[in-house]
Design brief:
five-stranded antiparallel sheet; alpha+beta; Immunoglobulin-like; 172 residues; 5 helices
Length: 172
């Protein structure tokens, strides 16, 4: 009886013998096949997929990249700020943007870096700046005492001074 039912089910199958042979030995479920199809559609190559072998968690965590943005505090009216800071293997990557309501004095501290954990620069480090409507500064100094200062600000918009900075410094 079971054999007859299996033959009847097989008779209703629209798959070719070649298609069925491709599935020979497959032990997964339909969702596994759909996932593989969707993954291929994203353009992930076999090589890229193979590079993931052994990855057990977030890659940034496995590489030791840690978010240290909370160590930075805006100072002296530097507002509208966004800052991201990541530590990795003795290097700190910092990106921030913000503005002063008017042109600050040369040497004005715009950020303070907490001394918690030894993440201050080990040497004076200068970062270039870019900004909005031609506003700029000669550079931003990351000092070993944890102060971040703006040098030679130039406000071409005749309003608020907008500033964007990103770069790396070495910490202890």
């Amino acid at each position: 009886m079971t054999h007859a039912r299996d033959l009847a089910a097989l008779a209703r199958t629209t798959s070719s013998v070649a298609e069925l042979n491709k599935l020979d030995g497959f032990t997964g479920v339909v969702a596994d096949l759909n996932y593989a199809k969707d993954l291929k559609a994203t353009g992930v190559t076999n090589t890229e997929f193979d590079h993931l072998d052994g990855v057990t968690s977030n890659l940034q965590t496995q590489l030791g990249v840690t978010d240290k943005s909370s160590l930075f505090t805006a100072a002296n009216g530097f507002t509208g700020t966004t800052l991201k800071s990541y530590a990795f293997n003795g290097l700190m990557f910092v990106w921030f943007g913000g503005y002063f309501p008017s042109t600050p004095a040369n040497g004005t501290t715009i950020w303070n870096i907490s001394n918690t954990g030894g993440y201050r620069p080990v040497e004076l480090t200068l970062f270039p700046t870019s900004s909005f409507e031609g506003d700029t500064a000669q550079f931003v100094k990351f000092n070993t005492d944890g102060t971040v200062q703006i040098e030679s600000p130039l406000n071409l918009s005749n309003g608020a001074l907008y500033l964007t900075v990103n770069g790396w410094y070495r910490y202890a």
